[in-house]
Design a protein that fits this description.
Helix content is about 45%, strand content about 20%. With about 290 residues, it is an alpha/beta fold. Helix 2 (about 35-50) packs across helix 14 and helix 13 (about 265-275) runs antiparallel to helix 14.
């Protein structure tokens, strides 16, 4: 009887001490190149500096789905954006006072810690916000450098965007038109995979793009200045469950070389490797680490 009790106690202690002594942790990413590259970079750094294995689950469609998996413990980390969580998961409205990147970042960090027992790391260093893209030829012929310059030409222009931006409230298309007092001849909804090429070929005159998309440079498009500071910040960052960081505190230091080191131009170049050159995100991440950290 005493032997049985001893075995039960030993089993209980072993289970408690190994509750997070798992051999595999899981990181999630969305269904486009950028978060997948960053997730792979985190995976590489952790695996090369610990005995842990990292499983990367790609192609979550939407911030609410990946966040639900995170809260359920199905994933331990994921890559996201301050503006996405500010308006989505946290349900905040974008007003002028919330256009300050540091203020939004501080709020998201505080709320994720208090509400979800999670750490929102400092940003990687880039802001993948919405942006207006036009062809270089279109911009140079009309001397367009900022969005306000479009007022003279908007009535003759076709502008493309995805359905998400067209339907957003607070920082979507209708609000954009009001802030800049623009009236485009033809707004069209279009898949992002087609939109950049449509601008480059002249099928549309402008597009509401992602500012760090690799196809911007590849197709020689130009991002024009948001001179009225309409678009909110979408600074990319890593989110982690505190329970995992408590179990493996070395992870904080291991991923530190990525924090604040990746500019818009840098991430755009690695996005281009995936979206234009058709490399796998893991290969792009390996190159990023070799070039930025090593």
């Amino acid at each position: 009887m005493r032997k049985t009790i001893l075995l039960i106690l030993l089993f209980g202690l072993a289970f408690h001490s190994s509750a997070f002594a798992q051999e595999t942790i899981t990181i999630g990413s969305g269904n486009f190149a950028e978060p997948q590259i960053l997730a792979e970079a985190v995976k590489i750094l952790i695996e090369e500096n610990t005995d842990l294995e990292v499983s990367h689950v790609r192609n979550f469609s939407g911030s609410s789905l990946i966040h639900s998996a995170f809260l359920a413990g199905d994933i331990d980390f994921y890559v996201s954006y301050t503006g996405t969580q500010f308006t989505g998961i946290l349900g905040m409205e974008v007003t002028q006072e919330w256009k300050d990147p540091k203020k939004v970042e501080d709020y998201v960090q505080e709320q994720f810690y208090d509400r979800f027992d999670a750490t929102w790391f400092d940003t990687f260093g880039f802001n993948n916000t919405y942006a207006v893209a036009v062809s270089r030829d279109f911009a140079e012929k009309r001397n367009i450098t900022q969005i306000s310059d479009l007022s003279e030409y908007a009535s003759e222009m076709t502008i493309a965007m995805d359905n998400t931006f067209r339907e957003r409230v607070g920082d979507g298309f209708n609000d954009f038109l009001q802030v800049y007092n623009l009236d485009f001849k033809r707004p069209v909804s279009m898949d992002y995979g087609l939109m950049y090429r449509a601008v480059g070929s002249g099928d549309v005159d402008a597009a509401i793009a992602y500012s760090t998309d690799g196809r911007i440079a590849a197709l020689d498009l130009v991002i024009i200045e948001d001179d009225r500071h309409f678009f909110p910040p979408y600074d990319g960052a890593l989110v982690a469950r505190n329970a995992v960081l408590d179990a493996f505190p070395e992870i904080r230091e291991i991923i530190q070389p990525l924090i604040g080191q990746i500019s818009n131009e840098v991430i755009q170049r690695y996005n281009q490797l995936v979206d234009v050159d058709y490399k796998d995100a893991a290969d792009a991440a390996r190159q990023m680490i070799d070039e930025i950290i090593s």
